């Protein structure tokens, strides 16, 4: 016999079998069990959503202890005092600076707009020459001190990686070919803007370089990339500054770090024409409106539309659309409709 | 064992190639080759600026070709690459 009391701990698949065999009490219990499970799921979802809503982009920095693993040991959390490890403090301070820039300038709450925690990992691997975003968190290597030094110590590196996170939640540009080059472009754009804000520099005094503070003595160049003169930052720099020299090979996910030089130069020219603050707003709103497979021409179409809308609202100068069209044209990206 | 290692991508976007020959004792070779027999986890498609490791090993006449990202590279392969970079 199946009493209600006993049925409450019986697994659902057995209840289903018993219900099929005609037990009404098991049928009722099954329905009740499903109702409870459903309401539990709703409650859990609400709880998760509420957690999302109240997030404020709290920072957590982990020390990887030179292992190739993330989140090995917690080093510093939001609101805690400085710790002995200078690298952990830099990752904490710089990620806070980037988070606050996006919050104060565009009212963006953390990377996803919902206040997700900002997790950084420092001291990843041994003499590891890289920094990356993995979909959830950022990871920095110490560098080998021959070619590169500590990647967490570059405000532009931190801003670049965090912007990858923002891109994932806004345009979500896929990471290959032209959409991938645009993904890289947006990271370099906000790395440049934030670096200039951080250093309190005017566009005329800025060096427009990416990664100049993380290249070491043995590196044959002054930086990793140049926004103003793509292709000139170092001996390996193969970035084109015009569509005429567009890279068509398959390396680097079909040139995501290579062809980004083309829109990067257009951004630099636009800043020179209308100023970096107007460009920041236009580029951010454009990222908001792009989509996964958007290419360079899609970008031009969207960015001119965004510039026009912002001009009509009086939020950017009234030469913005023409200045941007001109800048893109100078790097060989033209609107087919014009 | 002959090797050719290509490391692409990364924040710097500067590719690195290492080519040469490395003598491994039997135990080291077995460990390395066994690690390449396992089923690898899927690539993390959300990674941005992650390294991509392309590995070609030639042991006598047998050629092994493998490709890994930051999250599915076997520990033994990473150690092998580290020892090459250190050279
Ligand atoms: Zn990047």
TrEMBL record, chain A:
Protein family (similarity comment): Belongs to the peptidase M4 family.
Protein name: Neutral metalloproteinase
Protein species of origin: Arenibacter certesii
Cofactors required: Zn(2+)
GO molecular function annotations of the record: metal ion binding; metalloendopeptidase activity
GO biological process, alphabetically ordered: proteolysis
Top-rank taxon, per record: Bacteria
Record domain Peptidase M4 C-terminal: where: 172-333
Pfam families (alphabetical): Peptidase_M4, Peptidase_M4_C
Main location (coarse class): secreted
Domain Peptidase M4: 72-168
Active site: 161, 257 (proton donor)
Keyword Hydrolase found: yes
Function text: Extracellular zinc metalloprotease.
EC assignment: 3.4.24.-
Keyword terms of this UniProt record: Hydrolase, Metal-binding, Metalloprotease, Protease, Secreted, Zinc
Gene Ontology CC, one term: extracellular region
Species lineage: Bacteria, Pseudomonadati, Bacteroidota, Flavobacteriia, Flavobacteriales
Membrane-crossing segments per the record: none
Compartment(s) where it occurs, according to its Swiss-Prot or TrEMBL record: Secreted
From TrEMBL, chain B:
Record protein name field: Uncharacterized protein
């Amino acid at each position: 016999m199946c009493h209600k009391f006993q049925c409450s701990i019986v697994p659902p698949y057995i209840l289903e079998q018993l219900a099929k065999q005609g037990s009404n009490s098991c049928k009722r219990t099954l329905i009740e069990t499903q109702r409870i499970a459903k309401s539990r799921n709703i409650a859990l979802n609400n709880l998760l959503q509420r957690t999302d809503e109240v997030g404020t982009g709290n920072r957590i920095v982990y020390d990887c202890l030179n292992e190739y693993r993330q989140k090995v040991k917690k080093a510093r959390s939001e609101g805690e005092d400085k710790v002995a490890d200078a690298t952990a403090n830099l990752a904490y301070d710089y990620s806070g600076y980037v988070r606050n820039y996006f919050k104060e300038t565009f009212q963006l709450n953390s990377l996803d707009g919902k206040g997700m925690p900002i997790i950084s990992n420092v001291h990843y691997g041994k003499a590891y020459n890289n920094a990356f975003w993995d979909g959830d968190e950022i990871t920095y290597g110490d560098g080998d001190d021959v070619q590169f030094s500590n990647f967490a110590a570059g405000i532009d590196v931190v801003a670049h990686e965090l912007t990858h996170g923002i891109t994932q939640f806004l345009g979500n540009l896929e990471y290959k070919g032209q959409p991938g080059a645009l993904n890289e472009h947006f990271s370099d754009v906000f790395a440049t803007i934030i670096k200039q804000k951080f250093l309190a520099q005017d566009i005329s005094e800025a060096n427009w370089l990416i990664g100049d503070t993380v290249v070491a003595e043995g590196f044959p160049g002054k930086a990793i990339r140049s926004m103003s003169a793509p292709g000139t930052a170092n001996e390996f720099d193969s970035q084109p500054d015009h569509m005429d020299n567009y890279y068509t090979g398959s390396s680097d996910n079909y040139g995501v770090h290579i062809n980004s030089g083309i829109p990067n130069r257009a951004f630099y020219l636009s800043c020179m024409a209308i100023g970096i603050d107007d460009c920041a707003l236009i580029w951010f709103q454009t990222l908001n409106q792009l989509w996964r497979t958007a290419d360079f021409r899609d970008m031009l179409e969207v960015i001119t539309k965004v510039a026009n809308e912002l001009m009509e609202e009086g939020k950017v100068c009234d030469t913005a659309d023409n200045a941007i069209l001109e800048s893109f044209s100078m790097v060989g990206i033209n609107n087919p409709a014009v | 064992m002959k090797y050719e290692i290509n490391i692409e991508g990364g924040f710097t976007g500067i590719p690195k190639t290492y080519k040469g020959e490395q003598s491994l004792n039997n135990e080291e070779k077995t460990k390395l080759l066994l690690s390449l027999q396992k089923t690898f986890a899927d690539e993390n498609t959300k990674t941005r600026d992650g390294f991509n490791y392309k590995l070609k090993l030639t042991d006598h006449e047998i050629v092994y070709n493998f490709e890994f990202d930051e999250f599915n590279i076997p520990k033994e392969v990473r150690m092998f690459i580290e020892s090459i970079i250190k050279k």
